[in-house]
Structures are given as C-alpha cells and as structure tokens.
Please model this.
Amino acid sequence: MTLPQYRSPSTPPRRRVNPQGAQRAAALLLALDETAAARLAAALDSTELSALTGAMKTLEPLDASELEALIDRFANETAVRLSV
Model:
C-alpha cells in the first residue's frame, strides 16, 4: 500500500510524468539494479548509449506508481512482441 504524499495547501499538484521513447528506456534502465543495468548498457552501441544517457539527464522524477505503470507497459508490450 502506498501512502499519499502530504502537500501543503500552497503546493500545486504534481504533474503526472509520461516518458516516451529514449526517456522510457532510461527510466527502465535506472530502475534496474547496478549489475543488470551495466550488463544491458554494455550491449548498447555508442549511439544508443549516448541517446540513453542524454535521456537520463532530462528525465523528470517518477513516483512509484508511474514507474510501476511504465514497467507493466514494457512487460505487456514485450509479451505481445514475443508471442507474435
């Protein structure tokens, strides 16, 4: 169970983040443990790695529910591609 974050009345609501493209990949890579992330990064060519690190620099923070939704979306899309 996730507890809601306290916001003071003067704090505007947090905008939902919906990363796309390289930012989605960056968020997923950042969610991995260090060993898995290093193995995956080692498999990328320099252009892919550059795009990914650039996306990491511009990625807005994700809360737990946003990250969970991103992981679920990736898992579902991967399952569909593998079943074809």
Observations:
- The helical segments are 22-31, 34-42, 46-58, 64-83.
- The chain has a mean pLDDT of 85.
